[in-house]
Amino acid sequence: xxxxVTGATGYIGSHTVLELLExxxxxxxxxxxANSVPESLRRVEALTGCAVPFxxxxxxxxxxxxxxxxxxxxxxxxxxxxHFAGLKAVGESTEKPLAYYENNIGGTLALTQAMAAAGLxxxxxxxxxxxxxxPDRVPIPETAATGQPSNPYGTSKLMIEQILRDxxxxxxxxxVGLLRxxxxxxxxxxxxxxxxxxxxxxxxxxxxxxxxxxxxEALSLYGDDYPTADGTGVRDYIHVVDLARxxxxxxxxxxxxxxxxxxxxxxxxxxxxxxxAFEKASGRTIPVRLAPRRPGDIAxxxxxxxxxxxxxxxxxxxxxxxxxxxxWNWQRQNPAGYDDLTG
Length: 343
Hints:
With 343 residues, the protein is an alpha/beta fold. It contains eleven helices and 14 strands.
């Protein structure tokens, strides 16, 4: 299949482009480069030996999308779209909610309108476990209640899910997959592509990695008084390569209608456990400073991934040790991220 990937130069987008290419698909990438750089796709091309045509454009630009999706002869030259583009920092979303609603929801509306104009109705959407809010129980199945996310980022994802459900209900020709991620970490085992956040990292593992290479003084531990075994938040960390392969399986198994799949390991690890695993993988001590809880954070969140296993034949294969090893391998080779073009 020929796939348009929005947010293609980002962390999850670039890893998924690589997995799509290795599975025999053709990919065109689009990104506005607000939080990423085209170097990631250049490295994907080097790793796979496949060309990845790239368009620098904003997913909210409906005219550009319509022209791209319609093609020269008036027929959609693509078979499907994978939609990663959007703002994704939980903490930032509590400070800039309007930006998150405008970017994430506005971008999805423009994209689906352009798809409809081109007669293209096959879509994989990058959703999030934040749609579950603070869950009543763990592990969390896809049937768990949604509707009360604890931050605007999660609310934007839930609103997009509802928009896509309404779209499918109105037009049965659509095939939509909603992939609810848990906590992606790690990097491609080559160390050539990985997570390279712009500015101060919002997520745990890139922050730990930057402390390990000396870019940050210490890790801020946001709260140690949660009702968990060691007082720190518990999350389902999933290797980004496993996550990317889940997208390929979802695309290849996607039928008519709207489908929801959790992508997680089914096990939760605390922040302290993750730090200890990284220290073991890197051989470096990570200084930790206690800080207040962040708005929007919850105590515990991990997946029930049974549906993805049963329906897609997919399950996570990498353990926490492998996640931290590959995250360190990426950061060690690229201490300044993609700015270090010798990495």
